[in-house]
Write a structure and sequence with these properties.
The structure is a homotetramer.
Chain A: H1 2-15, H2 25-29, E1 31-35, H3 41-50, E2 54-58, H4 62-70, E3 74-75, H5 79-83, E4 88-91, H6 96-104, E5 118-121, H7 127-139, E6 143-146, E7 149-150, H8 152-158, E8 161-166, H9 169-179, E9 183-190, H10 194-222, H11 227-235, H12 242-245, H13 269-285, H14 291-304, H15 316-319
Parallel strand pairs in A: 1-2, 1-4, 2-3, 4-5, 5-6, 8-9
Antiparallel strand pairs in A: 7-8
Protein name (chains A, B, C, D): 3-hydroxyisobutyrate dehydrogenase
Domain 6-phosphogluconate dehydrogenase NADP-binding (chains A, B, C, D): 31-190
Pathway (chains A, B, C, D): Amino-acid degradation; L-valine degradation
Chain lengths: 325, 325, 325, 325
């Protein structure tokens, strides 16, 4: 056991050699697995290669795989086949069920994972699912850490993502080295599951603040206040929040934000609804009262049924606008 | 009309001479009326005197009046009697009904107000009531402006209040000079009523953010996150808001805030409930949907019925705490 | 005083003679005033005439007045002019401001009301406004009672309205006689304002139950239940409510209800939003927590901004439907 | 397959012979398994024996087992050991995790279930868990049906429970015969999971109506209405619901309900919170907006943190009472 633990530490240091800006034949030979090559995962995988890593990829979409192969990656037939060839593996998948299938399914990672492998899951999923997969991974001698990201597609492309990492402290160094190839801010949050917890906590407060800002701007405008003036007052007072001073939801108050671009780009309302659903699941399971978080979830759910799914989540301003129709 | 307008401009410039740091016999003779000498009004009146103004005061509490008289103020028998002697008058009262009575009652200011008098009401009340009193004042040739404050008792004492001012732009210079004796940030928000609008908009968003922060911190802690670490993550991310980074509601996360002093001091939950009620009245009257603002109001109302009235409004963290009992 | 009180009792008994199915010259000469001849007031006034009352009417719409005059009513130029000619007066107006103007305005009822006149206001307005008008009326020696109705336009035409009456018990007999010409269920609720209180309480619970039924039916259907089967289970169990067993919001579950007629007819969502606004005002003023009532208000407010204003209030089922778009 | 299906039909008809009021040696020999002997399960098992069934029981509490054994039951060491000896099995457990363990655990029912066995789970759990267990059971040739109950402890003792049954129609006859020994109303709701769906739908609407009734009664009382009068008005109007006309939450309005017994007995707030959590999970998973259901969940969650866990769920009236402190 100790033996295998030492072994994987060695392998991993070698594996991350390129990232540390020096090169060795070992580094060239060691590959990193990457499963899930969507809007977020694709650019992340590209960045790994740019930092000198060889990668072996899998995705259910063959065109996504081909794109990466065209950039120099190799590919495998299944998560299981990826796992068989690597000591380090990253996954970036849409939801809890996908992650469960990817790791524990018949063709899943854990069917052939090597002892000592470090598994980094960047999907945003339920903390309890992260914990469960970590438990199954531990039974195989592997280490599973949850590493959800914030920052969106552009940060994914630019390699400026924030990673919130849950898992054993003594593995964080290795995780940090690899994740630093794809992000600029890597935070160790605690035990496995706490990365997810941090992510959904932040997004719950974000959603609440955004809806609150939208309501407040709507109300102030109806009461005769100029939108820019009102934003200025809030931003220099106790109503200040990220949604009011960086990402104001009222068209024309700020430039370069989705509200001034017909709510295109940004973070879609359906994605916010998903994260709020995870927060509500976690709140229900832990019996934590979250009245505003719960109502925020409902409002984004209602936006989904009213045609706002793909609009940026700041479009709640429009959804709640008294004069919209 | 022009005559009277010129007259009051002259009188007012004279009245504020002391504030402008030069002295004249005219300035010494001209008095400023002050009605409402409570926790907020008392220190405001003291600051006016410190800046060189002679004041004539009224309050229903004779002990409050005596305190000011002891500091050099003169007093009058009624709002009406104050109005008879001044060109500039400030009021600071608990609620809409008090303001209505103070101005339009049988012994009210408007019974004997002189044409051209500038009436500055710093109470936090319904915007519609401000508008109505302004209309009645205009019928007497006086100018009523709403100037609610933010900043609390300490800012009142230190003369560092923020004033949000609603009323005609051409009167703002005079208002600004007088209010600057009691505050450091004087914002002209627009027509009469918009000062109140700005105040209740800010406080609505503040309440939403505070409850959201409390829920989020509670949830994160239940999911295994360290409170300080979680606060740090939020504060460097899109969940950031004044309630998380300046006034965190979790005991021990920050020093010098009410949460670290058993929720004593600060801004009481009952006062927040009152402001949220004003926001809801305004939202109902203007048919503006404010789902989170409305629920925030309900939660502070419930806190009032659960013994939290006098605790700082950040005690919603405790109110919602899963393990409190 | 006693004299005048006796006088009006006598006049009133005479005035209601026709309603009591016997005729006298006095009854023929005595007229009932009626102000507000809209969708509800028009048919009510017609029913008064059918029961043998002579009426004198006023409305801001001259066509509404003409219709009544065509049916045998006389008319007057203003509420004041109506009041000058009657001992009994009924009003049916859209909102609190209209009632305030109708009674206390420059051409209002109270300018010329005779001592002893009984004033019955069937408008649905804020209880506090009813109380205030009653106080002004009492200063003129008149008696004002709030008598809001339930039942809608059809019940108005059929003379089957329910009246919820607030005012002095010793005047209820006279009120009851007159109101019985227009309704079948006349309930004395207590002092002035309690008629309104009963009305808005009922409608608040109705709105909550209706939204609850809509959510529940939506959820059950999504979980695989047949709508009629689910309605049957609810209706024979503890989920039973008027909205589920008499007025089910799901198209096809029941016949003869708005949900099976494209949500046409019935009680419009905008009217429900108005009543819920009154409930919220009353709750705020009385510092009563009403979390679900408050959210119900917000939801009908949001429906107003989403094109549902004129659809029956059961269309909340459609508004919340997951698959609507 | 056909063979085994016929076999189990035969066995089952024999097994339920006693319930059908005729006796045979086969019936005497065939046993029914019963797992979970708590407040609900214990009396249900007793009723099965009273109707002539032999039962073999299991519970983690040995004292609960002993009580049943004292009444004539036999016992087994584990769910697995029960399953080995029966063709019909009933389970009544606290939550989803317990059911999952009971059926799929190392010592679970499915380890030794015989093909053709009918498994009836009366626990209130997530519909998705019922579906999942049913799928695992089908792999063993057994049939799993969800049969949650309504009616509480007294109905359990009296054998008057309502069972909401989800599962294949052709198995409902057999389920119905057995469940009829413990209840009086057995409803087939559809495929597996729909019994749970019906249960949580009903309880969600029940919670909404109850809170709505509590808010409405509180508001009406604050506005001057007599509680009994208000209840009467609601109950004869469109505000009518089970919570207002059968189980009114205001002390003194009705006799024989928990509100008139210090909210003792009845259905505890913590149990309601649990069912509302299941409803929210199902709503989240099916992306169904349920704003009031969601807030109702939060309110019962808050009641749990405020000391109301064991009080009847109608105590929400007290929780929301403006004057409680």
């Amino acid at each position: 056991m100790l033996q295998s633990s030492m072994m994987h530490t060695v392998r991993r240091l070698v594996g991350s050699a390129a990232a540390a800006n020096f090169s060795s034949s070992a580094a060239v030979n060691s590959k990193v697995g990457f499963i899930g090559l969507g809007n977020m995962g694709g650019p992340m995988a590209q960045n790994l290669m740019k930092k000198g890593h060889s990668i072996i990829v899998y995705d259910i979409s063959s065109s996504s795989v081909e794109e990466l192969v065209g950039s120099g990656a190799s590919s495998a037939e299944s998560p299981r086949a990826v796992a068989a060839q690597v000591d380090l593996l990253i996954s970036m998948l849409p939801n809890s069920a996908n992650v469960m299938e990817c790791y524990t399914g018949a063709e899943g990672v854990l069917k052939e994972v090597k002892p000592g492998t470090l598994l980094l899951d960047s999907s945003t999923i339920a903390p309890d699912v992260s914990k469960q997969v970590a438990k199954f991974a531990a039974e195989k001698g592997a280490v599973f850490m949850d590493c959800p990201v914030s920052g969106g597609v552009n940060a994914s492309k630019d390699g400026t993502l924030t990673f919130m990492v849950g898992g054993p402290a003594n593995e964080f160094v290795a995780a940090n080295e690899l994740l630093s190839c794809m992000g600029k801010n890597i935070v160790h949050c605690g035990d496995v599951g706490t990365g997810q917890a941090a992510k959904i906590c932040n997004n719950m407060l974000l959603a609440i603040s955004m809806i609150g800002t939208a309501e407040t701007m709507n109300l102030g405008i109806r009461l005769g206040l100029d939108p820019k003036l009102l934003a200025g007052i809030l931003n220099s007072s106790s109503g200040r929040c990220w949604s009011s001073d960086v990402y104001n939801p009222v068209p024309g108050v700020m430039e370069g934000v989705p509200s001034s671009n017909n709510y295109e780009g940004g973070f879609g309302s359906a994605l916010m609804a998903k994260d709020l659903g995870l927060a509500q699941d976690a709140a229900t399971n832990s019996m934590t009262p979250t009245p505003l978080g719960s109502l925020a979830h409902q409002l984004y759910r209602m936006m989904q049924t009213s045609g706002y799914s793909k609009k940026d989540f700041s479009s709640v301003f429009q959804f709640l606008q008294p004069d919209q129709k």
